[in-house]
Amino acid sequence: MKFKHSLMSDNFTKSDMYEVKKFINHKNITLTQSKKVKEFEKKWSRWLGVKYSVFVNSGSSANYITILALKIINKNKIKNEIIVPTLTWVSDINSVIMNGFKPVFVDINFSNLSMNVEEILKKISKKTLAVFITHAQGFNGLNNKLLQVLKKKKIHLIEDVSESHGATFNGKRLGNYGLISNFSFYYAHHLTTIEGGMVCTNSKEIYEIVKILRSHGMLREANNKKFERKLISKYKYLSPKFIFMYPSLNFRNNEIGAVIGINQLKSLNKNNLLRTRNFKLFLKLLDPNKFFKEFDIVGSSNYAFPVILKTKDFKKRDLFEKKLLKNAIEFRRGNAGGGNQLRQPYIKNIVKNINLKNFKKVNHVHFFGYYIGNYPSLNKNKITLICKILNNVKI
Ligand SMILES: Cc1ncc(COP(=O)(O)O)c(C=O)c1O
Question: Which residue from 67, 181, 184 has its CB within 8 A of the most atoms of ligand 1, so it is best to mutate?
Answer without folding.
Answer: 184
